[in-house]
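Please, structure for the following, as tokens.
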Amino acid sequence: MSGRDGGKKKPLKAPKKNAKEMDDDDMAFKQKQKDDQKAMEALKAKASGKGPLTGGGIKKSGKK
């Protein structure tokens, strides 16, 4: 009954998973994801050079 028993117990560490063998479908999927990521970064860089799309100024409600 010492003071060190209280609190949440640490879970046991799970053993590391071995790197699974990737077949051609997995490799193609990873490559496609990398290509999509690069394309998105290029589009973000292109879009960041321009100002905001809305140029309306202060928005007003329909009420008077």
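The chain is about 40% helix and 0% strand. Helices lie at 24-48.
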